[in-house]
Specification:
13 helices; 39% helix; 6 strands; alpha/beta
Length: 279
């Protein structure tokens, strides 16, 4: 950027205007006059009924219905088999069964990272100062999981997986084969399967036979189980749309340009895709 200014390709005035656009929000928030907050007051504000309701509404509005073959919404009090969802919460919506073949619906909530990628991240983390001081293996695993789930390191600072593992790592973001095999086996019971994918990275390639195996699929972003269930059982009509596209294959991912959005060949789901229930 400095070189471009020196070469006269970008003017100083243009840089100043860009900086002003960014800094105006700091001024409007009063961060230059008083950048500190009352921690006790912050807790009360966040936990207020009004803000809790707004936060939950935001969760509901973030759940994306990718695909629905008429199985959703489901009637409450049906027999439900679950994986990745708290049993106590799901029991408020349906009768929970332990055998998938005895259910009216199978609901699976699952992260999308690969075991190999996770192992690579674990080994890479051991070489970084913030992680190296964690001697307890269980706590180290928890710290790396936090990076996958929320992008935060042990010190609370944001951590990028690619930076942590090295930019040269050839990352495979395809949905785990073993997990998909397990889901396909449950689908063989003849019971409708609904899968809610929770991305744990910058992207994911969903199985090519997704629509052949599942009756519906959703995309989540770390919402509470109750928000997912509110959508599944029709207490909330989904409104969210994809903020990115989902490629059809790893080959399509590798052929994408790094600096061009939405350019993968024949994406499985396009930017802006998302369904709502017909009323």
């Amino acid at each position: 950027m400095v070189e471009l200014v020196k070469e006269g390709k970008i003017t100083e005035d243009r840089i100043n205007k860009a900086a002003a656009h960014i800094l105006q929000w700091h001024f409007k928030l009063g961060l230059f006059e008083n950048p500190y907050v009352d921690a006790a007051a912050a807790v009360n504000i966040v936990n207020s009924d009004k803000n809790q309701k707004l936060g939950y509404k935001a969760q509901l509005e973030s759940v994306i219905l990718l695909y629905n073959n008429g199985v959703l919404p489901v009637k409450e009090k049906c027999k439900l088999y679950i994986e990745g969802v708290e049993k106590e919460i799901a029991a408020k919506y349906a009768e929970i069964v332990d055998n998938p073949s005895k259910a009216d619906l199978i609901l699976i909530r699952t992260p999308t990272y690969l075991k190999d990628e996770y192992s690579d991240a674990l080994e890479s983390a051991k070489k970084l100062p913030a992680f190296a001081k964690i001697k307890d293996t269980k706590k180290l695993v928890e710290a790396v999981t936090e990076v996958f789930n929320n992008g935060l390191g042990p010190d609370g600072q944001r951590v990028d997986l690619v930076d942590m593992m090295g930019a040269s790592v050839d990352r495979d973001i395809a949905f785990p084969v073993d997990k998909w095999a397990s889901i396909k086996k449950m689908a063989q019971t003849g019971v409708p399967v609904v899968v809610a994918f929770n991305p744990t990275g910058s992207g994911v390639v969903l199985p090519a036979d997704l629509k052949d195996i599942t009756k519906a699929s959703l995309m989540l972003f770390d919402v509470q189980d109750s928000a997912l269930l509110d959508v599944v059982f029709g207490r909330f009509n989904p409104v969210a749309r994809l903020p990115f596209e989902i490629p059809s294959s790893m080959e399509a991912v590798k052929k994408q340009l790094e600096d061009v959005p939405f350019d993968s060949k024949d994406p499985a789901f396009k930017f802006g895709d998302g369904l709502s229930y017909k009323r």
